[in-house]
Design goal:
Strand order of the largest sheet: 2-1-3-4-5-11
Number of helices: 15
CATH class of the largest domain: Alpha Beta
Structural class: alpha/beta
Distance between the termini: 73 Å
CATH topology of the largest domain: Rossmann fold
Shape: elongated
Order of helices and strands: HHHHHEHEHEHEEHEHEHEHEHEHEEH
Number of strands: 12
Number of domains: 3
Helix content: 40-55%
Length: about 400
């Protein structure tokens, strides 16, 4: 069979940018949109053509016309352009000035997947993946801080050969082996929201989240300055869990360091929001001599705020504060029932890990993930208004994509 010749092209074909090596500005040496051809011909066939072109092969006029005809016919099919758009979003690409890249698949391992605190984290993951042209990362783990369930999900991600893992390291040793095996398999791993303790043998590449012990110290100093003397209770969903235990440890240290005549008692509340609320109320009813209360997780903070409202405890001189930006918590701060909450910017705890894993993959490992503190801000009645007047993905109060004006 004779191979197609490559005669000199006519002027009209040259003007149309069809001749190999002479595509119109912004065109493709394949003669048609590569994304359209991928959908019709398949990824492997198009990649084979592209490899040959990079090696110096010049497609014949007949091949270029065939590609152009395929693209033109396919684009007229109902729903085809939408399919191409969907495919491009899921398979990667060249967003902004980045080169075309694979649709790297990342997995987040979480300890309380249904807890409302992590809604903005999920939005951060979604937005970063969309921005970078990646398929949306998986968000899996346990609903009740069961470490074995998290480890199982991480092992499954390693077995599936995902391209990167972000894990909330809530146990001091359980994740050491999975992290090591992931790294040995060439899968980058970062910690988010909760980190391995100092001096740990865990080999995670970086931690993205709040400095938990420092934030606990700030919390303890704040409540001590309000209470001055008497008993304080500290509520914690899951004692020992490394996403919140360092906070309550920091609070204890700061209260002791204050030198004030304050006693501090740690109280477990449970991983479910409704259980937390009930446990806090039960403890208060049995200890009405309390002069202050704090909570170190989102659900316990909301339950504490609701308790303060139910019994109008501020009118009795009782002070309270906690963490995170659940809508009920913010509303009750604005009404004066809770003194403060701490914003750790959970949106960034989803957004930044995606960006760091992406850059690691894009740079061939030259851009190593780096520790990133997502911050600490006390939200009080004085500055809570912007949180309440806007519903955004950043606080998890709305799923709407929007530009938020500075108030």
């Amino acid at each position: 069979m004779m191979r197609d010749a490559d005669p000199v092209a006519s002027d009209d074909m040259r003007q149309g940018g069809i001749v190999a090596g002479e595509p119109r500005e912004g065109g493709s040496p394949l003669g048609a949109d590569p994304e359209v051809l991928r959908v019709v011909l398949g990824e492997e066939a198009v990649e084979k053509q592209e490899r040959r072109i990079r090696a110096g092969y010049r497609p014949t006029r007949r091949q270029l016309l065939r590609n152009l005809g395929i693209a033109g016919a396919a684009a007229g099919l109902p729903g085809f352009l939408a399919a191409c758009t969907s495919r491009s979003a899921s398979s990667g690409g060249g967003q902004g000035n980045f080169p075309a890249h694979p649709g790297w698949k990342f997995t987040f391992i979480n300890h309380v997947t249904t807890n409302p605190f992590f809604q903005p984290t999920i939005y951060g993951i979604q937005d970063a993946c969309a921005l970078l042209g990646l398929p949306t990362a998986q968000f899996v783990g346990s609903e009740n801080s069961i470490v074995s369930e998290m480890v199982d999900k991480m092992n499954a991600a390693i077995a599936a050969r995902v391209d990167g893992i972000a894990v909330a390291i809530i146990d001091p040793t359980a994740f050491n082996d999975p992290v090591a095996r992931a790294l040995e398999a060439g899968i980058p791993v970062v910690a988010y929201n909760a980190d391995a303790p100092a001096g740990s043998n865990n080999r995670r590449m970086a931690y993205i989240g709040q400095d938990l012990f420092l934030s606990g110290q700030k919390l303890g100093a704040r409540i001590a300055s309000l209470v001055k003397e008497g008993p304080i209770a500290g509520f914690i969903a899951t004692p020992g869990s490394l996403n919140i235990q360092p906070r309550i440890d920091g609070a204890k240290q700061a209260i002791q360091a204050s030198g004030l005549p304050i006693t501090f008692t740690e109280v477990a509340t449970g991983a479910k929001v409704e259980d937390e609320k009930s446990a806090i109320e039960a403890y208060y009813l049995g200890h009405k001599d309390l002069r202050g209360m704090v909570a170190v997780d989102a659900g316990s903070t909301q339950g504490l705020a609701q308790l303060m409202q139910k019994y109008n405890l501020p009118s009795q001189g009782i002070h309270a504060g906690g963490y995170d930006l659940l809508p009920t918590t913010l509303q009750l701060i604005s009404q004066g029932f809770l003194d403060f909450t701490i914003d750790q910017q959970p949106y960034l705890q989803g957004f930044y890990p995606v960006v760091q894993l992406f850059l690691y993959k894009l740079s061939g490992g030259l851009q190593q993930p780096s520790d990133t503190d997502t911050g600490l801000l006390f939200v009080t009645k004085d500055n809570v208004k912007p949180y309440l007047s806007t519903k955004t993905r950043f606080e998890g109060s709305s799923s709407k994509e929007q530009v938020v004006k500075v108030s």
